[in-house]
């Protein structure tokens, strides 16, 4: 099969995890960059990446690249590119461009010229041209324009890959599903370990974990832009999905407890989980969503595990800052009293969280939640005086 160059986009901080996922689906020459990974493979590799990657946001396929001086060169490069290999005049298209140190006066004008060139090529070839569709195009063309180079990609995902197809409503500031998957992977959680999220909101972390435990491919219940493109073997795609479907184990042994102070939010999270194909786990209590205050929620009895949460941020700019800070101190006291032996991970944009909690983190990882720079703090919850010893050791290391 012909080999192509692809670029997989992911949240900043998850590049290494994404590289591992790409290797696992057979990608070659995987190179982690900032906010994504380049790789080489056939169209089947890209389809597998769309289906199986939990951390990617998009998979882009490079279709042309060249140097340019002005927008006429860009027009010429687009005009001589064989777009008809991938789509036809009856597809709708949308062109977008990202520019870095680009000397062109107007990137919008460049976008217009790219669109004109594609349409002119089709008009000459077929007597018809693709229509432009802003909101739900069949084909998304992404141009990256640097100082003297322009690269064109086809977006194979369509809707971003973190949209797994189950979310209808939004709780307060939901995490993106691929960031939640990244948190679970970075924490070292595996399905044998009990998992608790006491600030669950719409349930993203718990749902993502349950789907991992059930070995449910993240892309199993959604469609992708490549399904409308030429050059992607749809028989093979159906086989891939069939294999992924038969690999699902809805009876996987797992113990996931999610809770939130808002009963409304909890109800929505449970609905989300059902839509995410997790009804069996909900029915027999392997996955629970309950209303509760993080200052009071108890862990499952007689076991230790991993707590992963994305609490409300108590930054100075937040008008509720003072009350969130004092709440986080109480949450910490509660964890110290009841979660000895657990590992607690918190994602927050508030760097002062460990101070607020009077806990010393044993690890911190810089991640981006969209544009928001965050820290993913790890706290090892140890009983009584050991706690101070562990904190001192963490300080020394
Ligand atoms: C940043 S959101 C979590 C978003 C979640 N990770 C998601 O993906 O939807 C914080 C959540 O904490 C909840 N919350 C605030 N105070 C709480 C408390 N004392 N106990 C439990 N939940 C609380 C809010 O209702 C909100 O849903």
TrEMBL record:
SMART domains registered for this protein in UniProt: THUMP (SM00981)
Which PROSITE patterns does the UniProt entry name for this protein?
A: N6_MTASE, THUMP, UPF0020
What keywords would UniProt list here? Methyltransferase, RNA-binding, Transferase
Q: Which InterPro entries match?
A: DNA_methylase_N6_adenine_CS, RlmKL-like_Mtase, RlmKL-like_Mtase_CS, RlmL_1st, SAM-dependent_MTases_sf, THUMP_dom
Q: Where is the THUMP domain?
A: 45-156
Task: List the signal peptide residues.
Answer: none
Q: Which Pfam families match?
A: RlmL_1st, THUMP, UPF0020
UniProt KW Transferase keyword: yes
Write down the Gene3D superfamilies for this protein, in alphabetical order: 3.30.2130.30, Vaccinia Virus protein VP39
Query: Has the keyword Transferase been applied to this entry?
Result: yes
Spans through the membrane = none
Entry GO MF terms = RNA binding; rRNA (guanine-N2-)-methyltransferase activity; rRNA (guanine-N7-)-methyltransferase activity
Q: What is this protein called?
A: THUMP domain protein
The record lists the organism as: Sutterella parvirubra YIT 11816
* Taxonomy of the source species: Bacteria, Pseudomonadati, Pseudomonadota, Betaproteobacteria, Burkholderiales
């Amino acid at each position: 099969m012909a080999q192509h160059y692809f670029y997989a986009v992911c949240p900043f901080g998850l590049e290494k995890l994404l590289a591992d996922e790409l290797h696992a689906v057979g990608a070659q020459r995987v190179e982690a960059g900032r906010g994504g990974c380049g790789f080489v493979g056939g169209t089947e590799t890209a389809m597998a990446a769309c289906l199986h990657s939990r951390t990617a946001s998009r998979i882009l396929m490079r279709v042309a690249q060249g140097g340019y001086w002005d927008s006429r060169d860009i027009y010429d490069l687009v005009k001589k590119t064989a777009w008809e290999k991938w789509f036809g005049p009856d597809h709708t298209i949308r062109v977008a461009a990202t520019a870095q140190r680009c000397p062109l006066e107007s990137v919008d004008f460049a976008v217009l010229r790219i669109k004109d060139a594609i349409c002119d090529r089709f008009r000459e070839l077929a007597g018809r041209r693709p229509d432009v569709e802003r909101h739900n195009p069949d084909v998304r063309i992404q141009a990256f324009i640097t100082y003297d180079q322009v690269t064109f990609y086809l977006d194979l995902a369509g809707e971003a890959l973190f949209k797994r197809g189950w979310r209808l409503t939004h709780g307060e500031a939901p995490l993106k599903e691929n960031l939640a998957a990244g948190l679970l992977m970075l924490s070292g959680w595996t399905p044998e370990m009990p998992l608790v999220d006491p600030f669950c909101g719409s349930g993203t972390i718990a749902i993502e974990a349950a789907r991992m435990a059930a070995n449910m491919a993240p892309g199993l219940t959604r469609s992708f832009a490549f399904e409308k493109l030429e050059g992607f073997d749809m028989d093979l795609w159906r086989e891939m999905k069939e294999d992924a479907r038969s690999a699902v184990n809805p009876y996987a042994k797992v113990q996931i407890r999610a809770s939130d102070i808002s009963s409304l939010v909890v109800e929505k999270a449970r609905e989300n989980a059902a839509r995410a194909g997790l009804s069996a786990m909900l029915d027999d209590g392997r996955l629970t969503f309950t209303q509760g205050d993080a200052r009071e929620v108890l862990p499952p009895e007689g076991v230790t595990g991993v707590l992963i949460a994305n609490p409300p941020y108590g930054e100075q700019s937040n008008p509720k800052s003072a009350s969130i800070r004092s709440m986080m101190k109480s949450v910490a006291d509660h964890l110290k009293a009841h979660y000895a032996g657990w590992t607690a991970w918190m994602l927050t944009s508030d760097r002062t969280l460990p101070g607020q909690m009077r806990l010393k983190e044993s690890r911190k990882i810089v991640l981006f939640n969209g544009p928001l720079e965050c820290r993913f703090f790890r706290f090892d919850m140890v009983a009584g005086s050991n706690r101070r010893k562990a904190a001192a050791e963490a300080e020394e290391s």
